[in-house]
Amino acid sequence: MKPILELSGIYYSYHTTEGETPVLSNISFALGKGEFLAIVGPSGCGKSTLLSIIAGLLEPERGLIKFDGKYHQECPPGIGYMLQHDHLFEWRNVYQNVTLGLEIQKQLTPRSKAKAMELLKTYGLDRFKNSRPSELSGGMRQRAALIRTLVMEPDILLLDEPFSALDYQTRLTVGDDIGQILRKEHRTAILVTHDLSEAISLADRIIIMSPRPATIKQKVALTFQLEQDTPLHRRNATEFKNYFNLIWEEINNNE
Ligand code: ADP
Ligand code: MG
Known about the structure:
The chain is built from nine helices and ten strands. The protein is an alpha/beta fold. The chain has a six-stranded mixed beta sheet, with helices on both faces. Strands 2-1-4-5 form a four-stranded antiparallel beta sheet, with helices on one face. It is globular. The two termini are 35 Å apart. The protein binds adenosine-5'-diphosphate and magnesium ion. Magnesium ion (MG) binds next to helix 1. Residues 47-48, 160 line the site of magnesium ion.
């Protein structure tokens, strides 16, 4: 599979008055089109920094990023960024929130409006299009935030701990739900999380990062012998426990 994104030898440090903090050290990986990659690693290791570099918000100190075979600078990818908090605006209804990005980028066309309505319908929010965000459950809000991102048709979706603000029960259902939506929409995505179970139940492949300055400790491809490869079925599969133990050991082995 031809990679949509290639990182080679990425280094990054923050410079503050206290001095230099090396955060990323020699990070290289490729992401295939349509692939769902999860990045796991301890808190503070540099996961969000890595996403900011991929999004072009930070410039790497060293290393190269290619998007669709071309250098990042000459051909910046369409990036969809989804964060921990849904950032829905209370003074706009659900439809107005979902189309906010289109409006800002002056892409509010009959076609894009129809796409927004179609996504709201497919994912059970059309009845709530005139509701305020506060009238929705946590899961529905997160779904609205995802639809707002998807409607921009990004080449790559970056998800930075998008479920961690939700309580455990909701996180399970919303995580599964959103994983299914991304598969159905054939989206290329990178999910950053410190929740191993979440990564194993959703991703095609997992990259394990070391504590700061983060290097890549291991890359694990996930394969499940399942008739229906859904997050819920994965959680109950025997492979799940094996992957969990393998990755857990890798994360906690810091010699
Ligand atoms: P993660 O997302 O894995 O928790 P981050 O990428 O947010 O980690 O941060 C990695 C390290 O860089 C942390 O130690 C953090 O304190 C530091 N850091 C993050 N942002 C800045 C900044 N703007 N200036 C200085 N240090 C930062
Ligand atoms: Mg982070």
